[in-house]
Amino acid sequence: MSAILSIRDLVVCYGSIKALQGISVEIPKGQIITLVGANGAGKTTTLRTISGILKPTAGSIEFKGENIGGLPAHKIVARGIAHSPEGRMIFSNLTVLENLRMGAYLRRDKAGIAEDIRRMCGIFPRLAERESQAAGTLSGGEQQMLAIARALMSRPECLLLDEPSLGIAPILVQAIFEKIVEINRELGLTILLVEQNANLALEVSHYGYVMETGRIILSDTSSALRENPSVRAAYLGG
Amino acid sequence: MIEFLQQLINGLSQGAIYALIALGYTMVFGVLRFINFAHGDIYMLGAFAGFYTAPKLLSLTGGGPSYGGAALVLVAAMALCAAAGVIIERLCYRPLRAQPRLTVLIAAIGVSLFLENGGQFFFGADPQAFPEIIADSAIELPASWGEFASLTLTIGQLIVIGSTIVLLAALRTIVKYTRTGMAMRALSLNPLAASLMGVNTDAVISFTFAIGSALAGAAGILTSIQQPSIDPLMGINAGLKAFVAAVLGGIGNIPGAALGGVIIGVLEALVVGYINPTYRDPLVFAVLILVLLFKPSGLLGKAEREKV
Lengths: 238, 308
Ligand SMILES: Nc1ncnc2c1ncn2[C@@H]1O[C@H](COP(=O)(O)OP(=O)(O)OP(=O)(O)O)[C@@H](O)[C@H]1O
Ligand SMILES: [Mg+2]
Fold this sequence. Notes:
- The complex is a heterodimer of chains A (about 240) and B (about 300).
- With about 240 residues, chain A is α/β, with parallel strands linked by helices.
- Chain A has a single domain, classed as Rossmann fold, CATH 3.40.50.
- Chain A has helices at about 45-50, 75-80, 95-105, 110-125, 125-130, 140-150, 170-185, 200-205, 220-225, 230-235; strands at about 5-15, 15-30, 30-35, 60-65, 65, 80-85, 160, 190-195, 205-210, 215-220.
- In chain A, helix 3 (about 95-105) runs parallel beside helix 6 (about 140-150).
- The longest helix of chain A is centred in the C-terminal third of the chain and has 18 residues, at about 170-185.
- The radius of gyration of chain A is 17 Å and the shape is globular.
- Chain B is mostly helical.
- Chain B has one domain (about 25-245).
- Helix content of chain B is about 70%, strand content about 0%.
- Chain B has helices at about 1-30, 40-60, 65-95, 100-125, 155-175, 180-190, 190-195, 200-225, 235-250, 255-275, 280-295; strands at about 130, 230.
- In chain B, helix 5 (about 155-175) runs antiparallel to helix 8.
- The N and C termini of chain B lie far apart (about 50 Å).
- At the A-B interface, helix 2 and helix 3 of A face helix 6 and helix 7 of B.
- The complex binds adenosine-5'-triphosphate and magnesium ion.
- Magnesium ion binds near residues 43, 44 and 86 of chain A.
């Protein structure tokens, strides 16, 4: 299967600290790939480098055959990669609707945008009920839905999702993960999912990478990783 | 009552000037979280831009003072100040973007000193007479208004207040209803998320400096219509007061800056009219201290929450 996004020997530093020490990840088109690992492993750093917030020190990031490593964030969105960041980062004083419009910031097709807003409201009915409410007044789970919907508004070919379960009640986490699977199936969207909740992540994904202190220590199909004794011991609670 | 109304009119026309300058402080704070201490000097540049362009522009419209000529002078000063603001940001603040905010603040103080001293060098330190761009005179109020007919209202005051209202409405339209305006609001809420949406943050920051500086330039012209004596240090006092106005309204809050400007202008006029003109400046700084003590987020500002 051909990879839509491939990362090779990526090194990223914060000052003198090497947060990524040369990682390689292949993301095939149409699949959900997950990156699991403990706090500080470098998962967020990986996503932030792909989306252009951080600059790689070495290595390459290829998207649809072109090197995008080092491009500024706004140019990377334009190429078709959307990033729903850790901690959601919704625009709290803007309304839900304005947040969705911000997601479509680079698009000029008014009719298409309106249609996509309707579609997002279909996928996440709670957003429809609250469309003219300030986004900061939404619950954590609703904010997460908004962050995902906002990222989808750019009509990406690849979606980077950082910890969609962070700080959200378990019942909503379940709902959000169902939506992620639905989006992947129905839109054929490629997703790179970062999660601390390895159980859930390996359940919904096709293939997984396990990270530890800036390195990939293991990668396999998600079902194989779920059965792997060392993964079970370290990440799946035995 | 008449006396009070009179002070209100005087205060409003001065407050309009503060409001226009305060907007620049607050908009730049919104997108960059720093106080551009050189902003008051942009207002001074606006006045001098008018001083130098007015003779040419007035001759285009017939020679003497005229509304058309005044409008041209206003637009020219706004454009020149917008350019100055963009250049200052590009050369002096952008290279320091990754540095601690204190560094940028000190750079702004440096730019301010540069403009004040550069102004004295190029324009001369002595006050200059701003050319008459409109024929200012008191408006004859109809006698049927009874005691209200004794109010003094000048054409200059009307123009200042009217132009300010038009500029505020234009700004509101830009910020609320245009794509760039929405990007500006998003950027001020979360710059990182804005760039993830595809916002070119450098371009939006430049745009913000352009708009803020253009408004200060307009204030420089509108002031000079009422008080036609300009000098290279005129931005210090006006800039400080507009800064207080921005803090009073809630720094970062656009309607707040406009409201703060009007309040400071009116308070000043009341102090001058009822108490003692020498208390005019201390009053403004007393307001600053009181706001910082009792409502640091300002009248319309929201207390800044730590992000989780
Ligand atoms: N802005 C920063 N400056 C310096 N070091 C940083 C910065 N951000 C992250 N790091 C360091 O880089 C390493 C990787 O951090 P990263 O945020 O990528 O981890 P993560 O896998 O996403 O962790 P978590 O599961 O807690 O979100 C950590 O050691 C962290 O301390
Ligand atoms: Mg993280």
